Amino acid sequence: MGHFTLDRNHSRTMSRSLQGKLGIVTGSSRGIGAAIAENLASKGCNVVINYASDSSTPLAASLADRLSSAHNIRAVPVQADISTPAGATSLIAAARAHFPTSAVDILINNAGIARSAPLPHVTPADFDASYRVNVLGPLLVVQAAQPHLPRDRSGRIVNVSSVSAAAGFAGQSVYGGTKAALEAMTRTWARELAENATVNAVNPGPVEGPMYASNSDEFREGIRGWVMHTPLMRAREGVDSEDEVREARENGGRLARLGEIAGVVGMLCSAEAGWCTGQVVCANGGMLMH
């Protein structure tokens, strides 16, 4: 079997594989979105860090400063509520103002909210808010970005979905439905935007961070069996950290790390992923749902 080695110059080129490109990551002041922004920045991509609430302004500004300094790129925080037509339009307009010569090379639809409740307690307000952010928001952003996408299929759009779209977890009538809708739009956009960009979704399972921590004890107990049968969530004593081993005992397995999810998104943004579109890519540690 043949083998090859990379010289130093080629390695440096590969490590800056997104040099000069522009990426927009919605909901990226913290959590998965921030990890995705860092993954793109580490490869030379300029990034727009989107956030919605005033309380996230310091986080977004700090992240932008850190990424710019650490990775020698331009990172710009932009406050915009992508669940409204005006907010989505202003996000893309701000990106174009800061990077007037760049196409929107990469768009990550990450912003989302999770409101879990058993069926009798689901309210119209829960439904409206969730679908507005999780479904309408990505639609509006893609509409606003479409005129500025590349014309040579080099663009990349990645929608952050959830295993909840297919697993049918109790209490997630609304949240699971929004993610199923996002996956359906992914397949449609892959066809409609085929000359501009690949369009894929990433499907995480339980991930560390405040969103998972906000779930009820009942939900976490209900998902425990799924986690226990997910191959890569099995913690290994003597290999994984003591915190991961302890976490695995509490949850039935360790949670995905933010960087692990960001890594899968980053792969889909590479030139090498140019033949992958309209797909839902599992980033859930091998969660076996059937």
From TrEMBL:
Occurrences of domain Ketoreductase (ranges): 21-210
One Pfam family cited in the UniProt record for this chain: adh_short
Cleavable signal peptide: none
GO terms for MF: oxidoreductase activity, acting on the CH-OH group of donors, NAD or NADP as acceptor; quinone binding
PROSITE patterns cross-referenced by the UniProt entry: ADH_SHORT (PS00061)
The keyword NADP belongs to this UniProt entry's keyword annotation: yes
GO BP, sorted A to Z: fatty acid biosynthetic process
Keywords: NADP, Oxidoreductase
InterPro entries linked: KR_dom, NAD(P)-bd_dom_sf, Sc_DH/Rdtase_CS, SDR_fam
Name of the featured protein: NAD(P)-binding protein
Native source organism of the sequence: Trichocladium antarcticum
Lineage: Eukaryota, Fungi, Dikarya, Ascomycota, Pezizomycotina
